[in-house]
Amino acid sequence: DHVNGWQRDTAQRLLVERQDRQAVPLLQQMVRHGRLPQARLHALWTLEGLKSLDEESLLHALRDPCPILREHAVRLSEGRLASTAKLQKEVFSLAQDADMRVRLQCAATLGELSGSPKRKTLAAILHRDATNKWIQLAVLSSLQEGEAWPFLRHLVEQEENWRHSISEVQILFLKQLAALVAARRHPDELAEALRMAAGASLPEHLDSSILAVLAGLTEGLKRSGQPLRTLMASPPPQLHKALCALDPLWPALRCLAIQERASLHRRAFALQVLSDVKPDLLAALVPKLLHPEQPHAVQQVVAGLLGEIAEAPSFPREVWGYILEHWGKYTLPLRGTIIASLLRSPKAANLLVEALEQKKLLPADLDPAAQETLRRFPNRDLQKRARALLDNRATADRSAVLRKYEAALRLVGDRRRGAQILAANCLSCHQFQGQGHNVGPNLSSVADRAKAALLVDILDPNREVNPDFRSYVLTTTSGRVLTGLLADETSAAVKLRRADGVEDTVLRSEIEELRPTGRSLMPEGLEQNLSLQDLADLLAFLKQPTPLPKPK
Known about the structure:
By secondary structure, this protein is α+β, with helices and mostly antiparallel strands. The chain contains 30 helices and seven strands. The strands form two sheets. Strands 6-5-4-3-7 form a five-stranded antiparallel beta sheet, with no helix packed on it. Strands 1-2 form a two-stranded antiparallel sheet. β1 and β2 form a beta hairpin. α14 runs parallel beside α18. The chain is flat, with a radius of gyration of 33 Å. The protein starts with a helix and ends in a 9-residue tail after the last helix.
């Protein structure tokens, strides 16, 4: 009961090491009446260490005014909970404790029990803490073998708030729970779960909880190695009726997927289920769902599923043709999602390589990570074709220019003249010492680069182009063509920035096409205005800068 923590820790350690049971009555008294909550906690765990923790001491701790004591008492009750009705009653009551950590420990500890009271108590904890991911994990971890389906059925059928006023976080929890049911692949449970999902045959009857269950079942079956579409193609006898009952569901999901009034998460679930079970049905909807007028979130979901849709045996090539035709109208994040999705399988990745070979896509349309994925693709044929298209080589004329100007590396440079050359040639696009324009990279931090590397940056700017500094060509619906760096992009407009910091903002409705050139905005041919000595002076300044001349 000492105020000093070291004293308490040492007292506990010595008592446990010595197994001094003469201290048990005093420790029991301290659990009930210790003046410090820390002392009561030490006494509780010391009794456990002495193998002398009795039920009365635990019950006192479960009712302690300090929440930390209650939390630890719940944890310590686990070993005897299944055989002690008094402790069960107390732990069940603490599921509604004012302290969240106590409720969290209850959710974890209830894994020692089974039956209806446990399900009701876990449901009550979830009702109060549905948005807490740790509570969700504790509840899932407390479900023993075969308990996932009864608990899921209890939530959906008997808990009113899980049926009608369900939040997005609760929806995701139901999906996880349904995935556990499916992964177990118990025929009777699976048949019941599928019949629950099949009860809704109209889009308006597909409430969020049923959609979450259906999405979880398809995901869990896919993870277990037996997708729902495989079961439907060759249904086991125990599942035949339940699977046949799903037939009216697919038209309902199709309607929901394109229903603009439906919430985004309901549409997303419908799309995910269709991609797993009826990819051919979803493929026909892709052009409509990727139309620029669709919400960006819906477009992103469809783009992320495109790889699975393209795996369908009868995937219509015209769908990919539509995507390529409208490529210039898609946002950069959407393009990135489409490419990442197609890279997931050889059949889908082949569409990308074909588009690159036919120059319907440019290497610049693929970010460095996607290019590297294609270069290392497991399919050797795709890998070989991709490397032939993507390997980055300096053009012959730039190589010749570099060889000619390498002599500048051996000349002594004048840093003062170099400052003047930089001010005259570079500040229209670069910033240095607070002067210039923020178009290309800031040159204030290049001093640590080798002179040879700086020479390549200056004379062959397209050899290695940072994705942040690639130039884009934008064509408007009126035929106007703009070039610049992509300074900003929203769902409403695109902003391009060019030399001298000039910016052009174009509404998305006015964009006919937006494409990266794969090249730097910095032009080649800078050497035409510079002698060998000029380059040597510029390099000397960049390596050891002096103050720039003041702008006139």
